[in-house]
Design brief:
By secondary structure, this protein is an alpha/beta fold. Helix content is 44%, strand content 17%. The protein has helices at residues 8-20, 28-35, 83-100, 120-134, 153-166, 192-206, 228-239, 262-272, 286-290, 329-337, 345-348, 351-365, 371-398, 400-409, 422-441; strands at 39-48, 54-65, 71-78, 106-112, 143-147, 220-224, 243-249, 252-255, 282-284, 293-299, 315-320, 342-343. It has a 7-stranded mixed beta sheet. Helix 4 crosses helix 5. The chain starts with 7 loop residues before the first helix and ends with a helix. Bound molecules: nicotinamide-adenine-dinucleotide. Nicotinamide-adenine-dinucleotide binds at residues 147-150, 193, 224-230, 248-250, 286, 300-302, 322-324, 349, 352.
Length: 445
């Protein structure tokens, strides 16, 4: 067990504090403002369940920052949802949108519930009630939800329908993204987070993030989580020539050194509800997957999976964070010391919000783009965001003395500056962008 701080909002703030040290010109008061959410809404509601009883639920929606555009962020259905988790996820959304340059701010929502233990009808009632209680807190130009853990395109269709019933006479498709393609969804949205992760990984390899390896072809990959993001990542990395050696879900992991066939894992999970028991594969505990020797480890499940107490066991050469917040600050430091690059969530998993942005634009124009067009645009945005983060890392690490001098001139305290990892470089890019827009728009009144 670890004694380190695992509250995701505290972690998100610590990550920002680390980045702010490399932004000496940033006004401390403005920075404190940027670290905190603008608005948090808590709703409590009851539903009458299929089994005849009345059950109570709590739902949250946090808008972290809207300087660069409307709030944007998923809705999570999970028993461990907390307000601080939602606040952390909302702030990561702000930084993510800024890193890839899509014109949204950051938001996130969640309902404390276990979708695995609720009937389809009960889940529908939870969604409709949550959306109607949020009322005008969400909207196509104010705050736009999307899928996250425990929610999917079907949930998004219900969110749209509920909001549309409450706002007749307007094109409300843009109130939510990740909808089914026949209800205004974008082609390519479902696999966008995995595909974006593939484009980022490819570019990072080409740019020399992993010494001696410039191509994905033949690299071994282990993936924690086999939901929307993990299963799509498995298929796409496999198609791109990588070898998927292990995957896990909440029930355990499966391993095969020569490589697994993602389509067969998906079929097995559909049939049995679990990846475990896949024919011709070895069964492992979920934690064991994180310690497998492989080229790339992809966390695609929950927060705080790589921590002080298990990160020294990691034998991957590189980590690509498709989950949000899977690595704690202590684990980040240890991985940096061990020379294991971590492609951070706010870059690696930004493909989802990027195609969500495409969906929102298509909804506004009542258009539907071809898949090739979506993927080509996604590739351009993800590759250029990767370049931007790598360049920022090089720029900072090449000018540490100048930054140190400037910090001293401005009376900023703290320990001497050390070279930054990719997370801190990405956060510096993002905070700079959001701060600039905030200042240029002016702090009102
Ligand atoms: P999902 O609910 O579709 O899948 C989650 C998966 O994680 C499931 O397979 C579940 O069994 C597995 N899981 C849960 N606990 C686990 C554990 N302890 N060990 C191993 N596996 C475990 O959710 P998703 O949409 O795929 O989201 C996964 C992660 O990706 C989350 O961190 C989410 O915030 C992030 N993310 C999602 C999107 C998106 O577009 N859906 C975009 C960006 C980031």
């Amino acid at each position: 067990m670890t004694t380190e701080e695992l509250n995701p909002f505290v972690i998100a703030q610590r990550q920002c504090d680390a980045a702010a040290r490399y932004l000496p010109e940033l006004e401390p008061g403005l920075f404190e403002f940027l670290k905190r959410p603008d608005k948090v809404v808590i709703v409590e509601f009851a539903i009458s369940t299929s089994s005849g009883d009345v059950r109570n639920f709590v739902g949250y929606r946090a808008v972290h920052n809207r300087a660069r555009g409307p709030g944007k962020g998923g809705i999570r259905y999970h028993p461990d949802v907390t307000l601080d988790e939602v606040r952390a996820l909302a702030s990561w959304m702000t930084w993510k949108c800024a890193v890839v340059g899509v014109p949204f701010g950051g938001a996130k929502g969640g309902v404390v519930c276990d979708p695995k233990k609720l009937s389809k009808r009960d889940l529908q009632h939870i969604t409709r009630r949550f959306v109607s209680d949020l009322g005008n807190e969400i909207g196509p130009h104010t705050d736009i939800p999307a899928p996250d853990m425990g929610t999917n395109a079907e949930t998004m269709a219900l969110i749209y329908d509920t909001y549309d019933l409450m706002h007749r006479g307007a094109n409300n498709l843009g109130v939510v993204t990740g909808k089914p393609v026949h209800i205004g969804g974008s082609r390519g949205r479902e696999e966008a987070t995995g595909r974006g992760g593939l484009y980022v990984t490819r570019r990072a390899l080409e740019r020399g993030v992993l010494e001696g390896t410039s191509r994905l072809d033949g690299l071994s990959v282990a993936i924690q989580g086999f939901g929307n993001v993990g299963s799509n990542a498995a298929s796409l990395f496999h198609e791109a020539g990588a070898r998927i050696v292990a995957v896990s879900d909440s029930t355990g992991a499966v391993y095969r050194g020569e490589g697994l066939e993602p389509a067969r894992i998906a079929a097995h999970k559909r049939a049995t509800g679990s990846v475990v028991g896949l024919p011709a594969a070895e069964t492992l505990g979920g934690e064991e997957l994180l310690a497998l020797p492989c080229d790339i480890l992809i966390p695609a499940a929950l927060e705080s999976q790589l921590r002080e107490d298990n990160v020294r066991d990691v034998r991957a050469r590189m980590i690509v964070e498709l989950a949000n917040g899977p690595t704690t600050p202590v684990a980040d430091r240890i991985l940096l010391e061990r020379g294991i690059p971590v492609v951070p969530d706010i870059l690696a998993n930004a493909g989802g919000v990027t195609v969500s942005y495409f969906e929102w634009v298509q909804n506004d124009q009542n258009e539907q783009w071809d898949l090739d067009e979506v993927n080509a645009k996604l590739d351009r945005i993800m590759s250029s965001a990767t370049d931007g983060v790598l360049e920022k890392q090089r720029e900072i690490n090449g000018h540490l003395d100048d930054l140190e001098t400037r910090r001293r001139e401005l009376g900023r305290g703290g320990a001497p500056l050390e070279p930054v990892d990719l997370r801190t470089a990405a956060l510096v890019v993002a905070v700079e962008r959001v701060a600039r827009v905030t200042l240029d728009r002016g702090i009102w009144p």
